[in-house]
Design goal:
The chain has 439 residues and is an alpha/beta fold. The chain is 44% helix and 15% strand.
């Protein structure tokens, strides 16, 4: 098993990124589509032609057992190491980017610098296929079905899929605050770029508290404030709000998170000011001075955006405030990809869709009396947050294995964190704190 590499070894090309290497066994029951290489000879040949066409133009290097392939990058460019090219092309041809992720889980390819490689691919996403073929992507790539729809039962199932794996798993790579969302490494002045790049878990914990405090400040949470939190996480925001003297109601669909957060409030001495419920946001009643929701809207699903916006409006008292933290993407990209079924849906976050800011604004304008009073984007801070998470996760490889997570899972999770970091570094996705007031 590999562990996190020291910075000076990051460019070493002698070993794949964690944790599955070529030839590693894959449990066919747990991972059927990773263990099985699809039989797609025509699509596989087409994928090979398209991929090699893209390699020749991209600023990367590509290596195979038979030798390097023509590629557009120089000696310092990130490396794509194709250990099993035929399997890689078969998966890519059969399932597009789902196949790309599954081929990494299977050990068909690796990279000593996965974030650099994935950032290049993200930056050149629209150039990966010849332009005349772009309209065909929707015809040949997987599309969403209704099986992951966020009905009340579906939302509980989707949340359990991700968050109820194990509190101990998340504790191995999150910081001391157990906060699973973007940290804020500066106060908005833009002066923390160098500090963030050198940050570790201790600095991350400080940055997480800074992020939460900014949201509490913008929504004027203080003594006697009635607060509703939609999406509890592991309780850091609820505890910090209660310590300010607020009366906090926090709702989650994760039984694991609820148990952890309730114990945390008890240990912090604020259990009398926190009510942490296993409850769908659609079932919440009451009127609150501040409604807070950190990176929850991404899991709502487009079909339920109107319901979510209406709930924010219904639950916010006249003159009250709403504080959202939301991952966002550019509007045209969101609309182009809204019907796609992706590797992230299949393995990480079923049922979700990252909104655009215009999509959020449209829901607020048409369904609520809420008006935006403040916006702060800090996608670069999310990239650094993810960098620290991935370093901590890979350093804890042995402990993750002791929890019962096999090499395929560990490879999948490391790839997920690298994939997300690359998205923020390439600017494909961003994160914002959006503050609103109800007239």
């Amino acid at each position: 098993m590999s562990t996190i590499r020291p910075p000076q070894q990051e460019r070493s090309e002698g070993r794949p990124d964690p944790a599955v290497g070529p030839g590693a066994p894959v449990d066919p029951v747990r991972w059927p589509d990773v263990a099985r290489v699809p039989r797609a000879p025509v699509r596989g040949r087409a994928a090979r032609l398209l991929a090699e066409h893209a390699f020749a133009r991209l600023p990367i290097r590509v290596r195979t057992p038979a030798g390097p392939l023509p590629a557009g990058g120089g000696p310092e460019a990130p490396l794509l190491d194709l250990h099993r090219p035929a399997d890689f092309y078969a998966r890519l041809g059969a399932a597009g980017l789902i196949g790309f992720g599954e081929s990494r889980m299977a050990g068909d390819w690796s990279s000593p610098e996965p974030v650099r490689l994935l950032t290049v691919l993200a930056e050149h996403y629209s150039d990966l296929a010849p332009r005349p073929l772009l309209p065909l992507r929707h015809a040949v790539l997987p599309r969403r079905s209704g099986r992951d729809d966020n009905t009340r039962d579906g939302a509980r199932r989707n949340i359990r899929h991700h968050y109820d794996r194990s509190n101990e798993l998340f504790a191995l790579f999150l910081d001391a605050t157990m906060t699973y969302s973007a940290a804020l490494f500066d106060d908005g002045s833009g002066a923390a770029g160098g500090r963030a790049a050198q940050a570790g878990p201790a600095e991350l914990a400080e940055a997480q508290r800074r992020k939460i405090d900014r949201l509490l400040d913008r929504t004027r949470v203080g003594e006697g404030t009635r607060v509703l939190e939609i999406g509890t996480g592991w309780g850091e925001l609820a505890v910090r709000a209660a310590r300010r003297g607020a009366q906090v109601t926090s709702v989650t669909l994760s039984a694991e998170q609820r148990a952890w957060a309730a114990q945390r409030a008890l240990r912090a001495g604020v259990a009398d000011r926190t009510d942490i419920r296993l409850c769908d946001y659609r079932q919440v009643t009451g009127s609150y001075d501040a409604v807070l929701s950190v990176e929850m809207i991404e899991a709502v699903g487009e079909r339920y955006w109107p319901v979510y916006a209406t709930a924010l409006d219904r639950l916010t008292a006249p003159g009250g405030r709403v504080g959202l933290q939301a991952i966002t993407m550019e509007d045209s990209l969101m609309r182009a990809s809204r019907g796609s079924y992706t590797w992230m849906h299949k393995y990480i976050f079923p049922g979700g869709l990252i909104p655009s800011v215009p999509a959020i604004e449209e829901q607020l304008r048409t369904r609520t009396a809420l008006r935006i009073t403040d916006r702060h984007a800090f996608g670069g801070d999310y990239a650094e947050t993810l960098r620290i998470w991935r370093a901590s996760f890979e350093a804890a490889d042995a402990q993750v294995a002791e929890l019962g997570f096999d090499p395929v899972f560990r490879t999948m999770w490391s790839f997920y964190l690298a994939y997300c970091e690359a998205g923020f570094r390439a600017g494909m996705i961003d994160v914002e704190q959006i503050t609103m007031e109800r007239d």
